[in-house]
Amino acid sequence: MGGATGSVLIVEDDPDLSAILATVVAGRGHELRRASNGQVALALVSERMPDVILLDVTMPVVSGKSSPKLCHGGRAFFPGCTGA
What we know:
Blueprint: E1 7-11, H1 15-27, E2 31-35, H2 38-47, E3 52-55
Parallel strand pairs: 1-2, 1-3
């Protein structure tokens, strides 16, 4: 497979699960960024919106459900996200 096929942001506070997801995503040739909480994810998204966000909706600091700015253009892929 040639080059990256898209950008993925993994937002997960469990380091083991984050590492597993990162291994799968990177192994498929995607550009990968990771955040351990919603606050860090918001900073990364403000720099550049990824093609896909894999988001844990129950995290400390800023949870996925309470952070509609992480919904890409208001298109939600999980219940409770209304977009912004």
